[in-house]
Amino acid sequence: MASSANLEDIPSMDLMTELLRRMKCATKPDKRLILVGPPGSGKGTQSPIIKDEYCLCHLATGDMLRAAVAAKTPLGIKAKEAMDKGELVSDDLVVGIIDEAIKKPSCQKGFILDGFPRTVVQAEKLDEMLAKKGTKVDKVLNFAIDDAILEERITGRWIHPSSGRTYHSKFAPPKVPGIDDVTGEPLIQRKDDTAAVLRSRLEAFHRQTEPVIDYYSKKGVVAQLHADQPPNVVTAEVQKVLSS
């Protein structure tokens, strides 16, 4: 938001929209959420809806790390040193960057964490940091979906590279298999949309993340979503979970 000195330069429409948003947000309960789910489970579809509905900030740890490095914050400089050496950025550093991020005004009503924590140690460090602020994770939304359904979802995706148009061999097929409807050019599959790549990603996901789900289940904050349903059904399920 601009400083008050040049508020008169902001179009009134934008000011009104922001004012109305803030009034709506003031009545919303605070929420600190973690989204967990394998690639293709629909987290990317649901998180903007949840963010807008509850006035939360969306914290994707990869993006935050890149932003901290670009802004040359003290933690960003440390993270860059680790990355330049080809090392993993330490859990403490990532939690530190989350700690910094949630002080922003946009995170006042809470946050959605996506892609973190991936291990129990990370979950413990996150909880310690939140406890120091007198808060905790309210809900962990587990986008549960059968691996076979994911495989069908992901390996059926085809892309027209120059326009970005996407097709799905089962759910949204092109008129002619392997050919873009508009230009007649061939469609491609992304390298990471193949069954072999997906299987290895899913194995890693289950190995790392299931212990995290168990950890939060013991705290009674995990909500299982049926992520194999159509997006609007999942949205309704999320809203039901978050209003309880």
Description:
Belongs to the adenylate kinase family. One of its GO terms (molecular function) is ATP binding. It catalyses: AMP + ATP = 2 ADP. Catalyzes the reversible transfer of the terminal phosphate group between ATP and AMP. Plays an important role in cellular energy homeostasis and in adenine nucleotide metabolism. It is a single chain. Helices cover 48% and strands 14% of the residues. The chain has 244 residues and is an alpha/beta fold. It has a domain at 29-146 and 203-243: Rossmann fold, CATH 3.40.50.300. The protein has a five-stranded parallel beta sheet with strand order 2-3-1-4-7, sandwiched between helices. Strands 5-6 form a two-stranded antiparallel sheet. Helix 3 (61-70) packs across helix 5 (91-101). The two termini are 33 Å apart.
The gist of it:
The protein has helices spanning 12-26, 43-54, 61-70, 74-84, 91-101, 120-132, 147-155, 195-218, 231-243, and strands at residues 31-36, 57-60, 110-114, 139-144, 157-160, 165-168, 222-226. With 244 residues, it is an alpha/beta fold.
Keywords:
two-stranded antiparallel ribbon, 244 residues, Rossmann fold, globular, alpha/beta
Write down the Rg. 21 Å
What is the fold-level CATH name, i.e. the topology of the domain at 29-146 and 203-243? Rossmann fold
Largest sheet: 5 strands, parallel
In the CATH hierarchy, what is the superfamily of the domain at 29-146 and 203-243?
P-loop containing nucleotide triphosphate hydrolases
Q: Can you give the mean pLDDT?
A: 90
